[in-house]
């Protein structure tokens, strides 16, 4: 990580990628995809996070399989990598939403299906390397089925502010839609953020607000681009 706790920025302009998967065929597939990219380098792979870190710790992104045979949980693995300043992209077949939720709670930045296109995989790696979260249908579906989410009770007015703002609106445009001032919208947003913080579901960014709106059913789950 850099000095302010954010993701490290590769000085060389090349993102150093590691991969953790205890099956060799997915590793070969990622190796083939990355070998043609000038800005991405697969530095190494291993069947466990511990073994990968024994090989290299100066990584920017790790592509992480959810189900490993060493008994570790996705949450443990994402947290261990984060302790080394390394962000994760979960690479999964998608049939274990409970494992996805475990990784999501630990702060993984992206979830990519093993059936995804090369373009989707590359976009997720590059976005994660830049510290950007990648909201996908798989993430939303896993969270939607989470029985441990503490619901947040919002008034009809706060619901409208959340949905309008999280859908891409600004304080000005939301205010115009609702007939209130931008300052009033900002005050509403503070209330919304506080309610989610009190429920243990912080909303530090606009994407976080979008996630919360999806989780609580105020907005529909995103659809995959065809």
Give a brief description:
With 226 residues, the chain is α/β, with parallel strands linked by helices.
What does this structure look like?
By secondary structure, the chain is an alpha/beta fold. The chain contains 10 helices and 5 strands. The chain has a 5-stranded parallel β-sheet, with helices on both faces. 34% of the residues are buried. Residues 1-7 have low confidence and may be disordered.
Spatial strand sequence of the major β-sheet? 2-1-3-4-5
Share of helix, binned: 40-55%
- What is the CA-atom radius of gyration, in angstroms? 19 Å
How many helical stretches?
10
What are the low-pLDDT stretches, counting only 5+ consecutive residues below 50?
A: 1-7
The H-and-E topology, N to C, reads as EHEHEHEHEHHHHHH
Mean pLDDT: 83
Main beta sheet: 5 strands, parallel
Layout: helices, strands, pairs:
Blueprint: E1 15-20, H1 24-34, E2 40-46, H2 49-55, E3 61-65, H3 74-83, E4 87-92, H4 97-106, E5 110-113, H5 118-129, H6 137-144, H7 156-166, H8 171-178, H9 182-198, H10 206-215
Helix pairs in contact: 3-4, 4-6, 7-8, 7-10, 8-9
Sum up the structure in keywords.
alpha/beta, disordered N terminus, 10 helices, 226 residues, five-stranded parallel beta sheet
């Amino acid at each position: 990580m850099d000095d302010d706790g954010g993701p490290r920025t590769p000085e060389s302009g090349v993102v150093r990628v590691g991969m953790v998967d205890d099956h060799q065929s997915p590793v070969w597939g990622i190796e083939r995809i990355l070998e043609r990219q000038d800005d991405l380098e697969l530095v190494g792979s291993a069947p466990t996070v511990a073994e990968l870190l024994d090989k290299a710790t100066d990584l920017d992104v790790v592509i992480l399989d959810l189900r490993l045979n060493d008994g570790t949980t996705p949450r443990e693995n994402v947290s261990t990598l984060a302790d080394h300043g390394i962000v994760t992209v979960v690479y999964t077949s998608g049939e274990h939403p409970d494992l996805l939720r475990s990784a999501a709670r630990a702060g993984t930045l992206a979830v990519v299906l093993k059936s995804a296109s090369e373009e989707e995989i590359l976009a997720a790696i590059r976005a994660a390397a830049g510290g950007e979260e990648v909201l996908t249908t798989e993430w939303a579906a896993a969270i939607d089925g989470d029985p441990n989410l503490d619901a947040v009770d919002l008034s009809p007015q706060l619901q409208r502010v959340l949905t309008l703002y999280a859908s891409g609106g600004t304080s000005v445009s939301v205010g115009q839609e609702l007939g209130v001032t931008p300052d009033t919208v900002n005050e509403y947003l503070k209330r919304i953020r506080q309610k989610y913080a009190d429920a243990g579901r912080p909303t530090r960014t606009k994407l976080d607000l979008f996630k919360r709106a999806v989780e609580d059913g105020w907005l529909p789950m995103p659809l995959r681009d065809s």
